[in-house]
Amino acid sequence: MSRVVSTDPPDGFQRVARSDEVARPGFVRREAHGRPVLLVRLSDGSPVAFGHICPHQGLELDEGVLWEDEVDCPHHHYTYDPRTGENLYPKRVFPARRAAGVRGIPVFETREEDGWVWVGPVRPPGAAPDPGGGEGSGGDDLR
Ligand code: FES
After folding, report:
1. Span 10-52, pLDDT tens digits
2. Residue 53 CA to chain centroid, in angstroms?
3. Secondary structure of the chain: what % helix, strand, coil (to 5)?
4. Atom of ligand 1 nearest to the CA of 78
5. Where are the domains of the chain?
6. Coil, strand, or helix at residue 59?
7. What ligand 1 atom has the least distance to the C-alpha of 61?
8. Rounded distance, CA 64 to CA 95, Å?
9. Nearest residue CA, atom 4 of ligand 1?
10. Whether the predicted model's global pTM rises above the 0.85 cut
11. Rounded to whole angstroms, how far apart are CA atoms 13 and 117?
């Protein structure tokens, strides 16, 4: 008698792209949970998913690239950590008081299984990636 073991991701994940569609350094746009998300693959090979709007001036990140594993906005080159959503530049060069006001981007729990990339819920800002295979990132609300 064989036993069927489900490899389906947990509830709350949606299959959004074939693995071979998610590359680097450019982003691919998909829909997850009724909202646009951007996907890219980090240098370690893991896929990440994040919101499509840069909070600097509310412009789209679609034409940006991953630069040294940072999401680089194409408009004024603010950069974001795709795992946590935290702004990295200009936050790292701003004085502390000014840096505190620089917002991040939303990031999503992300898994890759059976040749597909799955996107789960928004990761709370500052939360670590899901150790169950997730890669992705947290931040502000989607626009
Ligand atoms: S809109 Fe992204 S850096 Fe200005």
Report:
1. 689 999 999 999 999 999 999 999 999 999 999 999 999 999 9
2. 12
3. 5, 35, 60
4. 3
5. 14-122
6. strand
7. 2
8. 26
9. 76
10. no
11. 10
